[in-house]
Amino acid sequence: MARGTSPLETMPVSRFARQTRWSLIVLTGAMLAFLYLPIAFLILFSFEDAATPGLPITGLTLHWYQVLASDSAIQSALLTSIEVAVVVTIIASIVGTMVAFPLVRRGVRAPGLLRLGFTLPIMIPGFLIGIGLLIFFRQGLHPLIDVQLGLYTVVAGHLVFTIPFVVLIVASRLQGFDRRLEWAAADLGAGPWRTLRHIVLPLIAPAILAGALLCVTLSIDEFVITFFLIGPQQTLPLYIYTQIKFGVTPEVNAIATVILLVSLLAVTLGSILLTSSRRLRRRRAE
Amino acid sequence: MVTNQPWPGRPADSDLAEPVPAIELRHATKRYGEAVALDDVSMVIQPGEFFCLLGPSGCGKTTTLNLIGGFIPLTSGDLLIEGHTVNDLPPHKRNVNTVFQSYALFPHMTVAENVAFGLRMEKLSKADIAQRTREYLELVGLSGLAGRLPAQMSGGQQQRVALARALAKRPAVLLLDEPLGALDLKLRKQMQTELARIHRQVGTTFVFVTHDQEEALSMATQIAIMSNGTVLQQGSPREVYDRPANRFVADFVGDTNFLAGTVRRDGGQAVFDVGSAVVDVQGDAEAGPATLMIRPEFLALRQGDATDGPRGLTARVVNVAFLGNHTRITVSTAAGEMVVVRPHGTRDSTADTQRELGEEVCVWWRTENAALIRE
């Protein structure tokens, strides 16, 4: 409201403009509460003293974090999740970046169709990807090789929906890339490879990094596809799911809080990198 | 300091009977599908020249520059740089460098890194790179700003960085694509002087693209005027201004008055019929329809009618515009309106400038200052 000094915003449209504005503010507050209150409770209960969390809070403790630190089952599940996430991120970042180039630079016949093909998996429900891959690995490939379900199949499943995100992010960065810079690099004696290394990659690096961070978050969070494709191992979301069946202990709240913080950190870092690079681009355009 | 000594690899002019042209185009043609951007152009640019490609937008001047830079391939014909055919040589292997219209500075590198980039690609030693970067930043007057990012600099400063970056490679030819287009008028004038100085100092061949005739006239040693993918005329600024090859050139370079009429032999003397009036033209002119071209500054006004003294046209003053260092007088004659420009500060012109609107005068000129153009 304080910044609403432009005549466009203060133009008296309706006699109830003031009331409308106030009720919109209240509605916005209610929606934000709906989005974030559950998470706030999750974090709050991770510090709850009692074994069965509930209101009112009986006392604050770091006990559940200590339990977490000595629980080897949950730690190995976390480790598995990280392993998968790292492999997925590396492959998805490289493949996604490579795919983005021909899509943006008209190196292919039908870039629009191909772009759709590469980004559609985002819109396919996870359980369809899971079932589809399961059938493909167990039945489709069976006559050729006997694929054992395990972390490899989970990685494959995660790649299906993470690569499109990298493609989208890197492609949008490439879209705004001033190709005159490549002319300038060639003009100054840089061949195609050195132009890529010294000019193009450094300039699209923020986008690749943002894509990679998103991959980490998506992969660690993933449940449905993993559920279909995993072997004897357990990733963290799967482990928590199995634990919850025996009742929610505050330990789960503690691990959820840790994951939440790490995810938030990764996403914030990614968006900061993206906006700072965008700001740089804008400044150049001025 | 940069001197104009030839660097290794470039033969000294004295070694050769005839200097090898810096750039030579032989029947160069560039087509985009049906559209012809450059139509069978042949052109020779001598080393050390400040060569200006001048023309309206879409005339093929930037296409020519991009062809020389190697960014677009020729459809047919040949391109020679220092006597070597380079038709299929990619840009990074050509001994020419470009100052782009948008400067195309690398936004993630500092000013010094931008200038050093081309030298790094040449795999020069660290000490050489540092030394040469310093040298060329000094040449363009940016020594103190080596650590800045391009985004932190003004347009004029970015322009200088682009210039230093291209010159640091010590190319055989420096290509400049409307580099002053984005600058405001005052800065543009300043950079024109600056560019001319730098050209004299480094002695490299400059090929400069512009649509601004004043810019071309003030800086170039040679001008090629282009239109519709062809070169209409090539010559020194004075040649192009004083003896334009056709109406387009006369019209594009400077302001001009055109009089359409017919050349007639009257005894041993050639005269020019303009409507009902007759004026003198230079003696060797052939008979036939033609256009007479006179620059506004060669026109003079005098009192009285057209038959008294050298022959001229009867005219009426329709507008007088005082522009500080000169006055622009528009007169209406039977052959159409003519523009007369009289400078201040010369004794013979002061009388002319005090003209009343509607006054009847005679507009006249010296025969040798008018040029005949045949279409």
Provide a compact summary of the structure:
With 286 residues, chain A is mainly α. Chain A has twelve helices and no strands.
Description:
The complex is a heterodimer of chains A (286) and B (375). Chain A has two domains: 40 residues; 222 residues, MetI-like (MetI-like fold). With 286 residues, chain A is an all-alpha fold. Chain A is built from twelve helices and no strands. Chain A starts with 6 loop residues before the first helix and ends with a helix. Helices cover 24% and strands 34% of the residues of chain B. In chain B, the strands form four sheets. Chain B has a six-stranded mixed sheet, with helices on both faces. A five-stranded antiparallel sheet of chain B has the order 13-12-11-14-20, with no helix packed on it. In chain B, a hairpin with a 2-residue loop joins strand 11 and strand 12. The longest helix of chain B is centred in the middle third of the chain and has 18 residues. Chain B is elongated. In chain B, 39% of the residues are buried. The N terminus of chain B is likely disordered. The chains are: A mainly alpha (286), B alpha+beta (375). Chains A and B meet through helix 8, helix 9 and helix 12 of A and strand 6 and helix 2 of B.
Q: Tell me the series of helices and strands of chain A, N- to C-terminal.
A: HHHHHHHHHHHH
Strand order of the largest sheet of chain B: 6-7-8-3-9-10
CATH topology group of the largest domain in chain B: Rossmann fold
What is the β-strand count of chain B?
20
User: How far from one another are the termini of chain A?
Assistant: 30 Å
Largest interface: A-B, 21 and 26 residues
CATH class of the largest domain in chain B: Alpha Beta
Biggest sheet architecture of chain B: 6 strands, mixed
| Level-2 CATH architecture of the largest domain in chain B | 3-Layer(aba) Sandwich
Assign an overall shape of chain B.
elongated
Coarse morphology of chain A:
globular
Q: Report the total helices of chain B.
A: 9
The portion of residues forming beta strands of chain A comes to under 5%
Tally of individual helices of chain A? 12
CATH superfamily of the largest domain in chain A: MetI-like
Helix/sheet category of chain B: alpha+beta
Number of domains of chain B: 2
Q: What is the β-strand count of chain A? A: 0
Q: What's the quaternary structure here?
A: heterodimer
